[in-house]
Design goal:
It is a single chain. By secondary structure, the protein is an alpha+beta fold. The chain is built from ten helices and twelve strands. A twelve-stranded antiparallel beta sheet has the order 1-2-4-5-6-3-9-12-11-10-8-7, with helices on one face. Helix 1 packs across helix 2. The longest helix is centred in the first third of the chain and has 17 residues. It binds ligand LHWOFXMS. The site of ligand LHWOFXMS has 26 residues, from strand 7, strand 8, strand 9 and strand 12. Ligand LHWOFXMS binds next to strand 7, strand 8, strand 9 and strand 12. Pfam families: 4HBT_3, 4HBT_3C. One of its GO terms (cellular component) is peroxisomal matrix. It comes from Oreochromis aureus.
Length: about 375
């Protein structure tokens, strides 16, 4: 059960037991997602006032623990076994019990980056997830030095488990070069991260509801215990509910938990590759609240890095899905620095097999 599902269960329960209250809270319409978002933020902020000390205490202790991001100290810290051969271990595994695609892509990029000079910067990568990753064993990364040119250098990386590839990845690096051609789309206008709640704060808010069903409570607590090494603040918390059909587009602020620091742009690209797979594919489900995913997995992932950025500082992640069909969904993402600079773009196709939502019987 993922976060969206837990929150939907919670919502279904509320609808069943407190229809009037729910209608009031949602402004009587499931279509006005902006209003839902505003109401939820205001309501949540109010409820959170009483939890301020608790939240700030836990945040302080978390920051102390996380002085250095676990993504740097553990997940992306590959062990060298031989020339161009590395081993990576896992930190967070999704409830699907298959390895998180972002982790495999991030680790593959780390392995590729180790074989290129410091004067080269990752500008793009293209990957296929060909088999599910097994969380019970480490992943081996085998790098092939495909080509070294004057400007561009290409590496091919195979991620291997049980003697078979789980991911094939091509990454390209370039020397820094000036260009008279420079343009980008404008960044969407959204509230700053300081005005929004983290996923954990939203969950604390839902947990404080007296009418929350035990099953939903358990699911939410499991999610809180899940130490995802990314901090996320949804711009529109209504997209968690999936009560009514939404445009296939969502935005959130995200950053790596803990400190990474300036300087190592290759590392920031690897962290961004990790983050980029986290909430992308779900965007294709937003128009279909009547369905839930019974099988969802990314099939491929491409990424382009445009400018310098810090993955441990808030970046706006804009996700949209221009197409779905044939049990697949196409999703595209743009990562924006908070000063409006487009930092990275990505694109992914995923398999999406769905089943109709039915009200949970045990609530
Ligand atoms: C706003 C912020 C919100 C944030 C909220 C976020 C909340 C939670 C986030 C959680 C994180 C999510 C994770 C993100 C996504 C990922 O990381 S996915 C992981 C990376 N990708 C993968 O692991 C995919 C790896 N590739 C594969 O596994 C295979 O390539 C494949 C399974 C896709 C290949 O499919 P296929 O060729 O069909 O393989 P088979 O082995 O033959 O079949 C596999 C199973 O599928 C069943 N199946 C096949 N075809 C069909 C069909 N037409 N209809 C129904 N079912 C089919 C087949 O029977 C097999 O089933 P079983 O395994 O036997 O049960």
């Amino acid at each position: 059960m993922d976060l969206i599902e837990v929150l939907r269960n919670f919502t279904l329960c509320r609808r069943r037991f407190q229809t009037n209250m729910a209608e009031k809270e949602l402004g009587g319409s499931h279509e006005s997602s902006g209003l839902i978002a505003k109401n939820n933020i205001l309501e949540a902020k109010e409820a959170l006032k009483s939890e301020q000390d608790e939240v700030s205490q836990s945040r302080n202790s978390q920051y102390q623990q996380d002085l250095k991001s676990v993504l740097v100290t553990s997940v992306l810290n590959l062990e060298k076994l031989d020339v161009d051969l590395y081993r990576g271990t896992h930190h967070w595994v999704p409830r699907t019990q298959r390895l998180f695609g972002g982790q495999i892509v991030g680790q593959a990029l780390v392995a590729a980056a180790k074989s290129v000079s410091d004067s080269l910067y990752a500008h793009s990568l293209h990957c296929y997830f060909v088999r599910a990753g097994d969380p019970k064993v480490p992943v081996l990364y085998q790098v092939d030095r495909t080509r070294d040119g004057r400007s561009f250098t290409v590496r091919s990386v195979k991620a291997i488990q049980h003697g078979q590839p789980i991911l094939i990845c091509q990454a390209s690096f370039q020397t820094l070069q000036p260009s008279p051609l420079q343009h980008q789309f404008p960044m969407p206008v959204v509230p700053p991260p300081e005005d929004l709640l983290t996923v954990e704060e939203l969950i604390h808010h839902y947990l404080s509801k007296p009418d929350l069903a035990e099953e939903a409570k358990k699911g939410l607590k499991k999610l809180l215990a899940n130490e995802v090494p990314i901090e996320i603040k949804p711009v529109n918390p209504a997209h968690f509910y999936r009560l009514g059909p939404e445009q296939p587009r969502r935005l959130f602020w995200g950053r790596a938990r803990g400190h990474i620091g300036e300087g190592n742009m290759k590392l920031h690209c690897c962290v961004a590759a990790y983050v980029s797979d986290y909430a992308l594919l779900g965007t294709a489900l937003l128009p279909y609240p009547e369905y839930r995913a019974k099988f969802a997995a990314s099939l491929d992932h491409s990424m382009w890095f445009h400018s310098t950025f810090r993955s441990d500082e808030w970046m706006l992640y804009e996700c949209e899905s221009p197409w779905a069909g044939s049990s697949r969904g196409l999703v595209q993402g743009r990562m924006w620095r908070r000063d409006g600079v487009l930092a990275a773009s990505c694109s992914q196709e995923g398999v999406l097999r769905v089943k109709p939502v039915t009200e949970p019987s045990k609530l």
